[in-house]
Each structure stands twice: as C-alpha cells, then as structure tokens.
Amino acid sequence: MTSHAATVESHDVGTTKLFVSVWVWLLALTGVEVFLAYLRLAPALMLTILVGLSLIKAALIVSYFMHLRFEHLGLFLLLVPAMVFCICMMLIMFFPDSVRLIHMRPQ
Amino acid sequence: MSEPELEGIVESPWSGGASPFAINSKKLGMWLFIVSDSLTFSALLVSYAYVRLANPDWPRPFEIWPAIAKSTAMTLILLSSSLTMVFAVSASRKGDTKKAVRMLYWTIFFGLAFVGIHATEWVTLFHEGVTPWSNPWGVPLFGGTFFGLTGLHMLHVTIGAVYLAIISWGFGKGKYNADHVEVSGLYWHFVDLVWMFIFPMVYLMSVSLKG
C-alpha cells in the first residue's frame, strides 16, 4: 500500500511563484477586510461582506495550499458538497431567527 | 501490484479498487477529520454570528490600535506559516530533507509566535475584567463566544506545532516520508483556514466605534 501510495502521489504540483502569488492575494484580501473595519458598516451588511471575503480566502487555501484543485474530482465530490449542505442547514436554522429577534426587542 | 494494473485503478475517480480517490489512506483520513472539524468550527461560528446579530448592545472593545493591529499581525504570521508549510511539502516531495525540515521549523516558529501574541491578547482582556462568564459591558455571551472560539483555535495551533515538531524530527531521521509531511501540512492549512473566519467575525465585527 505504501509503495502504491508513493506511486500515485509522486507528482509535484504548483510552483513557488504560484504559492507566493496566492499568499499575496490572501494578504490583500485581509487588507480589504481591515479597511472595511474602519468604515463601521451596519453589522448585518458587514457580516455578509466579511463572510464572502473569508469564503474566497478559504477557497484559495483549500484549492492551492491544500492541493484540492490538483486532486481527483471524486475526492472533491466526497468532501465538499456534504459539508456545504450541513453548513447551509445550520444557516437556514439560525439566521432568520436571529434577525427576527432583533425586531422583537423593545425599542 | 504491477504498473498497468495500478493505472487501471486510478484512471477514474469512480473505478473503485484499492485507491478510489488516488490518495493514500493517511491523507484520506486527514481530509475526513478536517471535514468533521470544520463542522465543529462552523457550528461555533454560526452560533456566534447568531448572538452577535441578535444583540444590538454587543460590546465593541477592540480599538484599531493595538487590538486590531495585533490580530492583523497574527493573521499575517499564520498566512506566512502556511507558505513555509507549502515549501516544506514541496521540498519533501523533491527529496530535499534539509530544506523541508528547515521550512517545518519556520512553520513551528510562526505557529508559536501566533500563540504567544494571542496569549498577550487574552491577558489584556483578563485585566479589563473579561472572563468567559462575565465582562464589564453586561453581555456575558461576549466572553463565552470569544474565549470559546479563540481558545479552541489556539488549542488546534498548539497541537499543530507539536505535531509538526514530531514530523520534522521523524522526517529528518528518515523515519517518516513525504506523505507524512503532506498530511501534517493539510492539518496546518486547515488551522490557518479557520482563522480566516475567526479574525473577521470575532475581531473586525467588534471594532470600537470610537476614533
């Protein structure tokens, strides 16, 4: 099994230039997030933008640093859709209720 | 197993056999662990977002200087540790043991620097009277969510640093191969990935309105 694994995974994916450019993009997106903090937007809008930017950063890390982009499609299909489904279930339960709570508060 | 047989097994992700995903069992195990752990963090982050949005009185104690500057520096450090980890994996694949071990040491150094800075942040909050159960601003959930999320993440970073220390020792001695380095790298990048959500949601969503 070990020799088998070594054979199927002997490829070396990505170059130094690619990884450094992904790192620079991640730093730039972090810079945008910190800049947004200066603007003091409304919490719901701020949360939406920040989660959107974080998802882009997460996609860059998973695709390039964790090499998922270079793996077989089957591995991606095994891992990602089920996880996204579970997270969507949590969001369906929580967010409408949290927004409703804001409106229920006495002014 | 002969070479043509092996190619037959890995040519399609659906072909099954000994290696349906064309990766070794250690790597598949780590990926499955990462999926389960990401759901743990997702539950914590979603519940944090829930109480954050539902509380207009949520405390905003983090000034741009020093708290946000410090947490931005921590983000930079963790991102840099991911880059050195990628270089370690790449060097181990090329058989450059010396470079791989050196890059692993840099990764551990960055990880420990992250934990050290984070610890000073915690101490500052303790001095301000913030605990997991109470704080001067009257929203106890703030401390509970802050220390719960950042504490679990810090635990992951600490365990990751120990894990990488063991791998770098074993790889340097020839006990472990490049697959071990790659699998430890997956864990380390995951820890970095989680911080990409904690930093904006916990720190940037609680920036002080003053100044």
In short:
The complex is a heterodimer of chains A (107) and B (211). With 107 residues, chain A is mainly alpha-helical.
Question: What does the model show?
Answer:
The complex is a heterodimer of chains A (107) and B (211). Mean pLDDT of chain A is 83; it is low at 1-11. Chain A has 4 helices and no strands. Chain A has helices spanning 2-8, 16-39, 43-65, 73-104. The termini of chain A are far apart. By secondary structure, chain A is mostly helical. By secondary structure, chain B is mainly alpha-helical. Chain B is 75% helix and 0% strand. In chain B, helix 2 (25-54) packs parallel to helix 6, helix 3 (64-93) runs antiparallel to helix 6 (178-203) and helix 4 runs antiparallel to helix 5 (140-173). The longest helix of chain B is centred in the last third of the chain and has 34 residues, at 140-173. Classes of the chains: A mainly alpha (107), B mainly alpha (211). The interface between A and B is large, with 60 and 66 residues.
SSE topology:
The complex is a heterodimer of chains A (107) and B (211).
Chain A lengths: L1 H7 L7 H24 L3 H23 L7 H32 L3
Helix pairs in contact in A: 2-3
Chain B lengths: L2 H8 L14 H30 L9 H30 L3 H31 L12 H34 L4 H26 L8
Helix pairs in contact in B: 2-5, 2-6, 3-4, 3-6, 4-5, 5-6
What is the average of the pLDDT values of chain B? Answer: 90
| Low-pLDDT segments of chain A | 1-11
Topology pattern of chain B, helix = H, strand = E: HHHHHH
Dominant shape of chain A: flat
Largest sheet of chain B: none
The biggest sheet of chain A, with number of strands, parallel, antiparallel or mixed sense and barrel status, is: none
Amino- and carboxy-terminal Cα gap of chain A? 66 Å
Question: Rg of chain A from C-alpha positions?
Answer: 20 Å
Name the poorly predicted regions of chain B: none
The tally of helices of chain A reads 4
Please tag this protein with its features.
heterodimer; A: 107 residues; mainly alpha; 80% helix; flat; B: 211 residues; 0% strand
